[in-house]
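Q: I'm writing up a methods section and want to include an example of the input and output format. Could you take the sequence below and give the corresponding predicted structure tokens, formatted cleanly so I can copy it straight into the document?
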Amino acid sequence: MVESPKETVEELKTAWKKLWKERFDDRERAEGIAVADYSSLFVDQGTIIHATRDFKALNFKEILERHQIDNAERFIQPDPHVGGWNKFIRKEITNQKPNRKKRAEAYRPEKKEPQQPKKGGRGWLHR
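A: Here is the clean output for your methods example:
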């Protein structure tokens, strides 16, 4: 039974999330270590998956390419430095000015000119 690339990517994503969720954080050495074997991700138990210095981090795109998945870019978000989906949403979609102003003015009643007040604005005189 041959799996489709989408199903393979979904399985790899769940394994990827599980890897990062279950990692052991060594605070003395400032690194994250894999707790179990993740053969689908090519990570063995005890492999350093995150470190602060002189370390090549794991890349999900490279894992997809090792599994020979075509167009791996369409299954993952773009790099945030290049500008990901969130940056696109922030710049292009949320900054659009709403068109409410023109529409609200169409339903607003016209202002009438105020009439001249009686008695020059002093009101009625009572005796």
